[in-house]
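To illustrate the input format used throughout this study, we show a single complete record. The first block contains the structure-token representation of the backbone; no residue identities are included at this stage. The design step must infer an amino acid for every position from geometry alone.
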């Protein structure tokens, strides 16, 4: 492992830690919530640092082309559709939404941003260290971010935070592998955006967890 690989792996780990601190403290009141905003600033710093070391990790032209992606987009959307239906049923909602609420646009945007962060910056940075290891790291990073969001202070969930971690981790492996195989972020982005669209389609306002 060369010096650059070690450096960029450290930055991907530092970005993960900052994102976890953000999700852990964002549901507190002030002044404790200040920790979350500081962590968000540090997340931006580490993303910029990863980009500076390896601009192609997120913003290379090839990552934004629809190359070799059709089968993977289809697979990812089918899996996200099944997971969204399961999540809706777990939450006591009908499998098929009855209306489209105003929040759905924000939900899609959140899915887009999360994929750019986790499959883009975290995986894209860590792949300088190891391609397959980067997939696992990005999956753990994303799953930890999701799980910690509901842990402290303890929130009521139909599934436990550990189950949420597990689902997100497994989905992250599929989405991360899609980037590895296709060299494109689009399968992961479209799958995540479709999942959030279907899951939150009826929401007219942001859920409590959206700060």
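Output of the design step:
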């Amino acid at each position: 492992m060369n010096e650059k690989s070690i450096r960029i792996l450290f930055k991907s780990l530092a970005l993960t830690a900052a994102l976890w601190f953000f999700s852990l403290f964002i549901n507190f009141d002030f002044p404790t919530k200040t920790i979350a905003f500081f962590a968000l600033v540090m997340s931006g710093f580490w993303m910029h640092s990863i980009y500076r070391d390896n601009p192609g990790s997120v913003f290379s032209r090839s990552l934004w082309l629809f190359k070799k992606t059709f089968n993977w987009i289809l697979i990812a959307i089918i899996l996200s559709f099944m997971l969204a239906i399961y999540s809706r049923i777990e939450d006591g909602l009908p499998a098929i939404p009855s209306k489209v609420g105003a929040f759905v646009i924000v939900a899609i945007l959140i899915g887009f941003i999360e994929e750019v962060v986790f499959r883009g910056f975290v995986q894209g940075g860590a792949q300088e260290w190891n391609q397959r290891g980067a997939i696992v790291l990005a999956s753990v990073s994303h799953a930890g971010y999701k799980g910690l969001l509901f842990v402290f202070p303890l929130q009521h969930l139909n599934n436990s935070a550990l189950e949420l971690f597990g689902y997100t981790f497994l989905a992250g492996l599929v989405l991360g592998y899609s980037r590895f195989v296709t060299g494109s972020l689009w399968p992961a982005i479209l799958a995540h955006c479709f999942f959030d669209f279907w899951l939150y389609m009826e929401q007219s306002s942001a859920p409590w967890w959206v700060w």
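Structural context for interpreting the output: The chain has a mean pLDDT of 88. The helical segments are 3-25, 34-53, 56-59, 70-90, 104-126, 131-149, 161-182, 186-199.
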